[in-house]
Amino acid sequence: MSLYHEAASILTGPGGGGSLKSRIYNNRALKSSPAHLYALVSETIKWSDLLREVVERSQLLSVEKKLTPVLAVLLAHDLLLRSGIAAAASHPLKLSITRHKTRLNAEFVKARLRRGFSSIDALRASVDLHGGSGKALGNGGPGEEKDGRVPTRPLPHPRWVRINALRTTLEAQLKTTFADYSHTDTLVSLLEAPPTEKMLHIDRHIPDLLALPPRADFTNTVAYMQGDIILQDKASCFPAYLLDPSPEDGELIDACAAPGNKTTHLASLLSERRRVSGTSTKNPSIWALERDKTRAETLKRMVETAGANHMITVKAGQDFLRVDPGNEVWGGVGAILLDPSCSGSGIVGRDEIPRLILPSRDTERQAKPSNKKKRKRGPIHESTVSGGSIIPPPQDREIPSDSITHRLSSLSAFQLKLILHAFRFQSARKVVYSTCSIHAEENEHVVIRALNSDIARRRRWSVLRREGQVVGLRKWSTRGTLSACEGLESGYGDTTEVVADACLRCLIGDGEGTIGFFVVGFVRDLTIGEDNELAPDSGATADCDEEEWEGFSDILDPELNHAWSSSGEMPTGKKKKRKK
Ligand SMILES: C[S@@+](CC[C@H](N)C(=O)[O-])C[C@H]1O[C@@H](n2cnc3c(N)ncnc32)[C@H](O)[C@@H]1O
Asked: Is 339 annotated as a binding residue?
């Protein structure tokens, strides 16, 4: 049996327990060198997300009928990432892949560029850092276009705690809940300290945000139970802070609100601004829209616990796309926060298990997305390698073959629709859009399409430039990926560089302790009227079909430091068991 057939049998055969390494090294029936086999299998798993894409786009499997998806990714790995196929020149496996070398190479280059990497070395560094080509997607390489800084080793994820200004102050919490904590100036020293150390770091970008050691648990504290403190990842605090809500904005909409982290953050920021400016109003000024009625219940409870009932009106079951922006009810809305469902690829922990992702043979479907609505899809892996041990694919589960590319394309179409819909609100002058995705398709590409839209040009929407951003985020150094921002149509006022610099990205594992995240602001110049040269707005987005696949909603997990869980776990004083 060749090296590749042996590797394929390891990847698709029954697990049998033990680590991947021990299973290879202890298997005396294998003919290939264990070191060679282990390197091939583990590296192919790491690169499989990208290799899957290359194989699918080259249509290799529809031509080479004898190749299985596993063999295809193994061979593509050696052809594209190593020195070539380890087999005799006339070996049928070698021939089956080398005759497609040119096309595979071209698709490999495109896949690299789609992820925003200018060189193979930068892509390799990111894949090594993140342990996979899926996680590296769209990151633009950690620091690649910034300062070439690639962290040498991953640091643990801190616990982030947001102080809720509706109920308390940072000073009060430092004197009570965190009274016996020492302070450190740097996040790195906090993360390098023993996990039991009572230490905190006051964040330098987001006001009222604290970093605590990864294992710190506050869910039993009075402050947590009464909503004085909220567990919320740092990146998740960017959108409300970037929107910078002020009394002059009038009313605000949080269009995709549940479970309510960003809604309550908006309320906290706004109440602080009101307090400082002496503006007082008893009227609610934030509309929290949530399409999913069950999730809206969690939202309501979160709003209540945060003490924000007097500021927030929850519209349970309300689809933002079904709201008429011209209706007078919304006439006072000056700012909109959009944090829609996304692929969730930036969420730490969700994708920690390295997975073998295999290509589909169904290239016809790849070329033409199905029109079926709302089909939820499962994971696209066949085998899962957990902590180095192989878990065979569940026998009773259909193995869906849809590609990530199609998921991203339907998600991004939906995300764009939401932005264009927000642009239609008569008095809106600020929109913030965010995702917990690392994919450029859901981030910079959506921004460019939004800026190129008729409605943006007609109503004079542009990006919120870096110099106009709140001070903490102006200082944030990781910006949008330049190459992913190309494609601005002529006539748009800002350059690609300005747009990329306006976008903010959070990277996993770059030492800042965030999940993978993207956020951008749009602003509208109300001093000049609409551009009537352009065709009148048809309002068409509201009538469009829903997206095919909804993607992840911000499933909040106390273990991962994302506020309360989507199952509705709230600070009741009793810990409920979460469903896994
Ligand atoms: C990523 S989550 C939002 C997380 C929330 N912003 C937070 O920070 O807690 C996306 C939410 O948007 C909701 N959603 C998706 N499409 C929507 C739409 N068209 N109108 C209203 N809500 C929508 C989903 O049900 C989901 O609860």
From this structure: yes
* pLDDT at residue 464 tops 70: yes
pLDDT at 534: 58
Helices 234-243 + 261-277 axis angle, to 10? 50
Looking at ligand 1, which residue's alpha carbon is closest to its atom 25?
A: 292
d(CA 479, CA 494): 16
Give 272-298 as a DSSP string: HHHHHHT----S--EEEEES-HHHHHH
Where do the H-state alpha helices sit in 89-233? Answer: 92-98, 101-114, 120-130, 170-175, 187-192, 222-225
Q: Is ligand 1 within 6 A of the CB of residue 319? A: yes
Confirm or reject: Cβ of 554 under 6 Å from ligand 1.
Answer: yes
pTM of the model: 0.67
Least confident of 55-64, 358-367, 426-435: 358-367
Q: Find the 372 Cα to ligand 1 centroid distance in Å.
A: 22
Per the listing, tokens 């909409």 go with 253
Distance CA 566, CA 295 (A): 7
Please report the domains of the chain, with CATH numbers, ordered by start residue.
3-114 (no CATH), 116-153 (no CATH), 159-236 (3.30.70.1170), 247-345+406-560 (3.40.50.150)
* Bond preceding residue 340 cis, omega within 30 of 0: no
Q: Please give the ipTM for the structure prediction.
A: 0.99
Does the beta carbon of 441 sit less than 6 angstroms from any atom of ligand 1? no
